[in-house]
Every structure is written in C-alpha cells, then in structure tokens.
Amino acid sequence: MKNLWRAMKLVLPQRKMLALYMLTAIGLALCGAAPFVLVKSFLDKLVDVPPRDKLSVFVDGVLVENFGSGRGYIYALCAITFVVWALKALFDFLNSYISSWLAQHLRMEAMQSVMRKLLSLDQPYFDRQKTGDLVSRMVSDGDNLRKTVKIFLDFMRQPPQVAALAAYGLYLDWRLFCLGAIGVPLVFLPLSLVIRNITRQTRKYQEKTADLAQAMLQNLSGIRIIHAYDAAAKESENFGQLAHSLFRTGLRRNLNRALQHPMTELMMGLGMVVVMLVGGLAVRRTPGANPTDFIVFVGALSALYMPLRAMMGTLGELAEFLPSAERTFEVLDVKPTISERPGALPCPVLAKEIVFENVSFDYGRGPVLKNLNLSIAVG
User: I need a surface site. Which of 151, 212, 248, 345 has the fewest CB within 10 A?
Assistant: First the structure.
C-alpha cells in the first residue's frame, strides 16, 4: 500500500479535480439510496397503508401537501423518482470521467518522471539492466500504474454508496441488517489469501514478460548471427519455452482471480438467505405486519451488496496491477553509482580550453590510456 500512496501523491496536486470526484461520489451515493425511500412511499400508497417511520411520514407529508393524495401524488412520486435516476446517471458519468482524467494524468507524470530518472543515471546502471525490462517498465508498467490508480479511484467511490444504503438499512431494521451482513466478515480470510496469491503470481508474470521481451529483442537484433549458425530452430524452441512459462504463470494468476467472485457471491448469498428466512417468518407471524417494509429492505440490502461486491473485486484488481507501481518506483528510487561529493565545488563555465597532461587510466584489466596529452579549445 506504500507504493499505492506514492502513486496517489502524484495526483494530489490536482486538488480541484479530486474534490469534484468526491462530490460526485457523494451525489451518486445519495441518488442511489433515495429511490428506495420513494419506492417505499409508492408501495405504501398502493396498498393504502399509512407510513409509520419518520422518513416515510415526512415524504408523504410533503407530497400530500403539494400534490394531494390522488393521482397527482402518484404522478409526482414517479416524476421525482425519474429525476433522481437522471441525477444518478449524471453523477455516474462525471465520476467516471474525472477518475479517467486523473488516472491518465498520473500516467503522463509517471512516464515523464521515469524518463527523467533514466536519463540522469550513469552507464553502469544500464550495463546491469535488460533493455526489454526497461522498455516494459516504461510502457507496460506505466499503463498498469494508470490502471492501478483508476481502480483505486473506482474503489473510493463505493464507500459513500455503502454508507448511504447501510444507513437506510439500519434505519429500517437494524437486526435484519446485521443478519444480512453476516457473510461479509466470513469472506475476508479466504479473500485475503486469494489476493496474496494474485500479487505473487503477478510479480512473476511481469518478470517473465520482461524476459520474453528481452529474448525477442536479442533474436531480432542478432538475426544475422542466428542465420549464420543455423540456430533458428533452437532459438524458436527457447522462445517457445519462455512463452509457455509465461502462459502457466498467467493461468495460475487467473485461477485465483476466477475464485474471487464466486466466493464473494456465496457469502453474500448466505446473508440474503438468512434475511429472507428470518424476515419472512417474522412477517408471517406478526398480525397486521406491512410486507412493503420487508420488500423495500430486501431491495436496499440487494443494492448494498453491489458496491460491496465491487469493493472486494477491486481488491483483486489492485493486487494484480499494484506490482507494476512497485516496479515503476523501483526505477525512481535508483541512486546513481556516480554522484557529486557533498560540498563539491561547482564546475565553472569553460573560458579557454580543457587540457589533459600525462593521463593514464586502468579498468583493472590493464591500462586503457597511458600518458595521454590532449588539448580541447572552446567551441
């Protein structure tokens, strides 16, 4: 999560866009919960049952005061519901667009930062690195970093929706709500194991992708040598082994990804079944019970499960793409092997010439330069 926070810090300067993002997320949450309040008033009106809870009494009072209790009541309720859905669609569009803008801006900033860092490093660093790995970090990991931030922003828009729907569910019946949430803690342990496996397999997948890219570059750059030694079949076999190894690693990662959604659905289904069993029996044995309250509660609980499922699915996606952010920051954290000594004097602007007198240099394998005398004039 440390590198995720580092990635988000690249977006923090865009405070206005982030503020708009959170405002649209809150608006989306409120517009997602409001229809259930309106539908409850609609159902109470249809079955001709007076509202009992304070919120329904307030909505009913406002509608009766302004539109009467006849057809105008129904017309107004339907029109308000449509307006709320239209606002929800608008907030959804704005929220998705802003998150895409922020993620794309982050990718641009990250790629520029990585390029600036690479251009500032000395030659020994590049001697130790594979060209295919560096290309992969610049292109593939940069795009995956954008996806990581986009996924995290999508994750952040779910809590307001969960809070709004949970508040309404608790308001309607806190006991049933607690029963409905029974599946949420049960899924955390197995889900955490799956996410850990996804992260591990993703790191291996990226390393093997870099190896495959390096082998491709070597084969293409050395094609004349390969043909000269009639090694095309051997190189093709080696490349095929790397490709199959990448396939197996990707398959193991996808297996864990495939487990994530069914596990979440199973635990959520358990909570819904418990609510239907307990709540349904309570409605049947309570004389004069209003079934519309229970119907609206089940609807709100079903809607609550949607952002919860999205949040848990997002955790798996973050586990898949977050290692790319780590690889990007590995480059940004590299320290040059050659650096200026603290307190070093600044190099003055060349005024006349550069002169080398009797310069000798040795890499450790014998002298490269010996008693070199050289004069380089300005210009």
Answer: 345
Would residue 230 be called left, alpha or beta, if left means φ above 0 and alpha means ψ between -120 and 50 degrees?
A: left
Q: What is the pTM of this model?
A: 0.72
Distance of CA 251 to the CA centre of its chain: 21
Contacting residues for 259 by C-beta, under 8 A, at least 6 apart: 194
- Residues 230-239 pLDDT 10s: 888 888 999 9
Q: Which residue is listed with tokens 């895409």?
A: 100
* Between 351 and 227, the higher pLDDT residue: 227
> Closest by alpha carbon to 22, among 99, 104, 107?
99
With H, G, I as helix, E, B as strand and everything else as coil, classify residue 375.
Answer: strand
- CA–CA gap between residue 351 and residue 68 (Å, rounded): 92
200-203 own/partner pairs: CB under 8 Å, 24+ apart: 201/249, 201/250, 201/252, 201/253, 201/256, 202/253, 202/319, 202/320, 202/321, 202/322, 202/323, 203/323
**Distance (Å, whole) CA 102 – CA 97:** 9
- d(C-alpha 308, C-alpha 263), whole Å: 13
Give the up-direction half-sphere exposure of residue 160: CA atoms within 13 A in the CB hemisphere. Answer: 19
- The pLDDT of residue 111: 78
- pLDDT tier at 137, thresholds 50, 70, 90: low
Q: Which domains does the chain have, with CATH numbers?
A: 2-334 (1.20.1560.10)
Give me the mean pLDDT over the 11-22 stretch. 86
CA distance 291 to 287: 11
Give 90-135 pLDDT, tens digit per residue: 999 999 999 888 888 877 877 787 788 888 887 777 777 777 667 7
Q: What pLDDT score was predicted for residue 92?
A: 94
* Residue with the two structure tokens 């406002």: 62
Local structure of residue 345 (DSSP, 8 states): P
45's tokens: 């009106």
Q: What is the mean predicted confidence (pLDDT) over 304-310?
A: 85
Contact indicator for 133, 214 with CB cutoff of 8 Å: yes
Triad 312, 317, 323: Cα angle to 5°: 130
Q: What phi and psi, each to the nearest 5 degrees, are found at residue 343?
A: 80, 10
Per-residue pLDDT reduced to its tens digit, 328-374? 777 778 887 767 777 777 777 777 888 889 888 887 777 888 888 98
